[in-house]
Each structure stands twice: as C-alpha cells, then as structure tokens.
Amino acid sequence: MVRLITHNLLACHAKGCTTNNFPLKLTDVKLALREADFNPDFLRGFLPRVEWDALIQASREIGDTSLPVERPEMLDDDLLRQLHHVLLEIHIDEGSMTCPNCGHVYPISNGIPNMLLAEHEIW
Predict the structure, then answer these.
(1) Integer Cα distance of 8 and 24 in angstroms
(2) Tens digit of pLDDT for each residue in 86-106?
(3) Residue 9: which pLDDT band, with cuts at 50, 70 and 90?
(4) Minimal CA–CA distance to 36: which of 1, 61, 70, 66?
(5) pTM passes above 0.90
(6) Average pLDDT of span 31-48
(7) Structurally, how many domains does the chain consist of?
(8) CATH number of the domain residue 76 falls in
(9) What are the Cα distances from residue 34, in Å, to 49, 82, 86?
(10) Rg of the chain's alpha carbons, rounded to an integer?
(11) How far apart are CA 65 and CA 86, in angstroms?
(12) What is the mean pLDDT of residues 12-18?
C-alpha cells in the first residue's frame, strides 16, 4: 500500500532520469484512512531518514496540513502522533505519481504503485 512513508523513499528510475527525480508528485489521489498501532520508538528511529521537505510537499498535495513546514527539533507526543497519522495511517488507494524531471507517470491502483518500466525506459 502506498503511504507517505513509502512515497518518501521512491524516486523516478526511468532511463536517463538521474536528477530532480524526487519527490514524485502525487495527483488525482483517492485516500483511505486505516488505523495503525502507535509506535513512538519506530517514528523516532525512522525520522532521521525522512526527507522532510518531500514529506511536507506530498502531505500538502493530498490535502493534509497538520505537519509544520520546518523539521522540528523537538519531538513531543503531539507531533509524534501527527507524524504517525500522516506517515502510517493515510493510504493512497488510487492516483498517480509523476516525475518532476522527465514527467514519467507511475500509476497507483488498489493501493499498489506500478514502478515497472517498459523495456525502452530501462537503463
């Protein structure tokens, strides 16, 4: 399932697309909310790997404005719960991700991103 935690790790890998290929722009999304167990230790451990600007951009693209624009230095319980919700409970069931560099579109169907490329698009 595509969640923003997953989206934050994806970049375009089409042939010749090596710069400005992250983050993929989310469009025409259909969202679902699915509860997940709150694990603050997981969030604290994963947060250093999160590209904050990309997370904020993606969350805004799907209509969520709950996270601060600047990466917070302190993680209180409220912020951890907001992160948990944005990263783990918002699911993208349908839509697409588009490369900002080459414009390649990766469709999302039934919560699964199709990251496969045609033979002529492969390195």
Answers:
(1) 9
(2) 999 999 999 999 999 999 999
(3) very high
(4) 1
(5) yes
(6) 96
(7) 1
(8) 2.20.25.10
(9) 23, 14, 11
(10) 15
(11) 10
(12) 91
**Mean pLDDT of the chain, nearest integer:** 94
> What are 56's two structure tokens?
């904020």
What does each C-alpha distance from 104 to 18, 53, 114 come to in angstroms? 13, 21, 12
Instruction: Specify if 122 maps to a domain.
Output: no
- Using DSSP's 3-state secondary structure scheme, residue 13 falls into coil
Q: Give the structural domain span for 112.
A: 2-117
In a domain, 123, yes or no: no
Cα four-point dihedral sign 7, 79, 34, 62: negative
Confidence of residue 20 (pLDDT cuts 50, 70, 90): very high
CA dihedral 53, 55, 61, 62 (to 10 degrees): -160
Distance from C-alpha of 107 to C-alpha of 28, rounded to nearest angstrom: 10
- Of 77, 109, 104, the C-alpha closest to 93 is 109
